[in-house]
Write a structure and sequence with these properties.
about 35% helix, alpha/beta
Length: about 300
């Protein structure tokens, strides 16, 4: 199990006149002084609703922890003794969260002004949406394909062994030919930025800790649909994802962890080639929503 210790924690009880926390922001970081610093600095303008910020440091060996304590003293900060993986560490933060909504946020994101307010308002007005995500753009302002259909083995192979067939499957799964300019239902949004309704999370459970690094974000969205909740992409919210790629070659330790996570995901949900197999198992309310992308 992860062994974490509080470096900074919130002050005792909530004061009588203190506003209720609307959003708990959970950020996982690892050896990322410049990235997490920019991310934390962007939050006050990016989210104007009452919120708390929880950072889980996954065993950093650099100055990440000392930088956060100096520059962001209001942040709750937990330092793990080692890299515990994505899902276990994020769950540490979720368990500490007090907000009506929980925001999972990568440390290499920069929030555009009031961007996260759009996600809050969507969840406030769409009570059957359990999870939503913003439009992600890269550091050059180019669109990131961050909302997708549930993966199949064919489109995953398309990334490693491109051919006409697998490339088409990958483009379909990534919704690459869609303009990404309207709010719509999608199968999943990637875990770089997910805002989750707490009541939905309580119902479906936390991130699956059997996945060290891989499709834990996809698995959570799939479980949302299985429980009757919807997942929505909302491009009015815009977040920069200056993606910090981890070394993940096919033969690296992290590469094998990722492959193992995918094998586990397909085994858990008992499909390989047809996502229609998944849709057929959804509750009736979610089967109908997969016949239309509209809200």
């Amino acid at each position: 199990p992860c062994i974490g210790r509080f470096v900074q924690r919130r002050a005792g009880r909530r004061l009588h006149n203190e506003p209720m926390i609307k959003v708990s922001v959970v950020i996982l970081t690892w050896n990322s002084v410049p990235e997490v610093g920019r991310c934390l600095a962007s939050l006050p303008n990016g989210l104007t609703f009452p919120h708390e910020v929880i950072v889980i440091d996954n065993g950093s060996q650099d100055e990440t922890v000392s930088m956060i304590t100096r520059q962001f003293p209001q942040t709750q900060l937990v330092k793990n003794d080692r890299n515990c993986g994505v899902a276990p560490a994020r769950n540490q933060g979720i368990r500490l969260a007090r907000g009506e909504y929980v925001l999972i946020l990568d440390d290499d994101t920069i929030i555009q002004p009031t961007a996260l307010d759009h996600l809050v308002r969507l969840l406030d007005t769409q009570p059957d949406v359990g999870l939503c995500g913003p439009k992600l753009i890269d550091a050059d302002g180019q669109l990131c394909l961050s909302c997708r259909l549930f993966p199949t083995l064919l489109d995953k192979l398309g990334r490693r062994f491109p051919s006409a067939l697998t490339r088409n499957a990958a483009r379909e799964a990534e919704l690459a030919d869609w303009a990404h300019d309207t709010t719509r239902r999608v199968d999943y949004v990637i875990g770089a930025c997910q805002m989750i309704r707490r009541t939905a999370l309580t119902e479906v459970g936390l991130l699956d800790e059997n996945i060290f690094y891989g499709p834990e974000d996809i698995d959570l969205c799939l479980r949302m649909y299985q429980a009757g909740w919807r997942v929505v992409y909302h491009p009015q919210a815009s977040v920069t994802h200056a993606e910090r790629r981890m070394a993940r070659s096919a033969l690296s330790r992290l590469g094998w962890k990722h492959v193992g996570g995918l094998i586990y995901y397909f085994w858990k949900h008992k499909y390989l080639f047809s996502r229609q197999t998944l849709y057929a198992r959804f509750p009736e309310s979610c089967k109908s929503c997969h016949m239309s992308d509209a809200l």
